[in-house]
Amino acid sequence: MPIITVSTTDAANWWDNLIKESESKPKRQAVFKDDPVAMACAVHRSWKTHETPQFQELESVLIEPEDRDRAEAIRRYYGAKFVEMALRGYQLSEFRLKLAEVLDGRRQLAESEVGMLYRLPYFYDEDTDTDWIYANTASGQALAYWKGLEHVTVTLTLTPLRRVLRSQRLGDSVKYWFVTEHNYPAVISVAKSNPLNAMMDSLFELPQLRVAAQLRIGTRRGHNVQDQFHFELINPRLLSSL
What is the pLDDT of residues 167-201, one digit of tens each? Predict the structure, then answer.
């Protein structure tokens, strides 16, 4: 079985990645016929359920009550996230402060910033899935296990947990989350355009996998996170399936 070569990205910094998608000097202000966050949720729902274009025009979709409920959930979640980060002493970037103002209606988006609306539902799905993974694994003890193993290839038994889509300007990727035999969270990230995705999807349906890999420690900051870590598997090699 060949070595699976994957790309990894630090999940903690996805908000910072959005900065690159906005212009430092916004041009004209965007005008929306309805709640822009609910419109983005409607586009996301339509794409998932009806296979419409992933980023169709916001004005072209019909907003359902569930889209408005989801928009409010997004506002509550990230409102709490930003407050939590501020209380923990994290320096909020100018972009994050601007986004917080957009979500609570104190700031209007520029036309050049509309792209981030499309990805809000994806970010929300990714973050809430990751919250669940951290809450249901021994993420607090992963760092202690990893120390001393930084450059060592280890053998792990992995049980699939969740498959999470990450949407970014430079391309989507799929994060395959597993739990190890010691209940530590571990992830393999594969670009969605990578042909290995089909193989990973098949492997993810198996009850367990035995792999050899090097470990890189990963973490994220902010909302509901207290000393929580996960393993990023570097050049994993499949040994057997169980």
Answer: 877 788 999 999 999 999 999 999 988 988 889 99
Q: How buried is 72 (Cβ within 10 angstroms: 0-12 exposed, 13-18 middle, 19+ buried)?
A: middle
pTM: 0.79
Residue-wise DSSP of 62-121: PPPHHHHHHHHHHHHHHHHHHHHHHHTT----HHHHHHHHHHTTSSPPBGGGTHHHHHHH
CB 78 within 8 A of CB 98: no
pLDDT, tens digit (0-9, with 9 covering 90-100), for 7-52: 444 444 555 555 555 545 546 877 788 999 999 999 999 998 887 8
Measured distance CA(94)–CA(61) in Å, rounded: 31
Can you list the alpha helix ranges (DSSP code H) found in the chain?
A: 14-19, 36-50, 65-87, 94-103, 115-135, 142-146, 196-204
Please give the Cα distance from 127 to 125 (Å, whole number).
Answer: 6
Report d(CA 115, CA 20) in Å as an integer: 11
Helix (H, G, I), strand (E, B) or coil at 237: strand
What separation in angstroms does the CA of 5 have from each of 2, 12, 123?
A: 9, 22, 25
> Domains of the chain: which residue ranges?
11-133, 138-241
Its CATH architecture, for the domain 138-241, is Beta Barrel (2.40)
Task: Examine the pLDDT at 68 and tell me if it is beyond 80.
Answer: yes
